[in-house]
Amino acid sequence: xxxxxxxxxxxxxxxxxxxxxxxxxxxxxxxxxxxxxxxxxxxxxxxxxxxxxxxxxxxxxxxxxxxxxxxxxxxxxxxxxxxxxxxxxxxxxxxxxxxxxxxxxxxxxxxxxxxxxxxxxxxxxxxxxxxxxxxxxxxxxxxxxxxxxxxxxxxxxxxxxxxxxxxxxxxxxxxxxxxxxxxxxxxxxxxxxxxxxxxxxxxxxxxxxxxxxxxxxxxxxxxxxxxxxxxxxxxxxxxxxxxxxxxxxxxxxxxxxxxxxxxxxxxxxxxxxxxxxxxxxxxxxxxxxxxxxxxxxxxxxxxxxxxxxxxxxxxxxxxxxxxxxxxxxxxxxxxxxxxx
Length: 340
Ligand SMILES: [Zn+2]
What we know:
This protein is an alpha+beta fold. The protein folds into three domains: 4-75, Aspartate Aminotransferase, domain 1, CATH 3.90.1150; 83-195 and 264-335, no CATH class; 202-263. Helices cover 34% and strands 31% of the residues. It has eight helices and 15 strands. It has helices at 4-19, 39-45, 70-75, 100-106, 181-194, 196-227, 234-259, 330-335; strands spanning 23-25, 32-36, 50-54, 62-63, 83-89, 113-136, 140-150, 168-171, 262-286, 289-298, 303-304, 307-308, 315-316, 320-321, 327-328. The strands form four sheets. Strands 5, 6, 7, 8, 9, 10 and 11 form a seven-stranded mixed sheet that branches. β1 and β2 (32-36) form a beta hairpin. α6 packs antiparallel against α7. The longest helix has 32 residues, at 196-227. The radius of gyration is 29 Å and the shape is flat. The structure holds zinc ion. The site of zinc ion has 8 residues, from α8. Zinc ion (ZN) is lined by residues 309, 311-312, 314, 328-329, 331-332.
């Protein structure tokens, strides 16, 4: 019998090794199988070219479990860095009528006076990030998350698949980009909410185990008093109590370590789409000065995009401005001394 995690590890290993050109015979729900690997993959995984693959630790062969070096070594088989595809839409219809009314309808600016002064054709990049999220603990939770954002404002958007857009063609821009902070923050939020059930179950199990440990050591402390009525020397009692408490807190530390959550987010792919957009210029006036701020009319969805709070990165239609005119949500503005 195999557990669900072991099954996932088995299918991960089979997929990975086949991808490397290996031949694998490892039926589902079996604890071991056989693999014939190309020399390069065998070298990276530090196993023979013809090898047993198994869930359980082995003296020779390839052990596929979280305690072995398999996951660390397998990582070297993946291509380095983020896989990137760049697309471009040459032209799109841009709204020509006045933006004053649409802006007034979509936005509120509670701490500034804002006037729409015009709109001009512009070009910007939307990024479609695919981020692998993993929580490792006593068990493992994984998911692949998608985050789409306006690379200039950081606003999170729900845009149609760019690969299905007939106007988008592939370009050969090679300039690499690092992981977008806005995308990582959004992915972390998404992972937290999707993993909520997993985390709750883990916490329940930890609470139950904790109670068991406490109960066990409490019983150890109580036992001699109940069984043997004869009085103990106070020093002997104290030493005994101390030893039991020490052992109990060591067990509790072990338990906390076992259940500690080790989260990781790894960007695996990004599609970058350069597209025409309409930049709507706002004249923003606060009591201590004024500035120009742009908002964007998205030519794909034909709607005004929200801005992103410059601190917590949430999308905002009710825009508060900091002293430097950075957009803020109401909560961040309230925490920002002198910001309003
Ligand atoms: Zn905020």
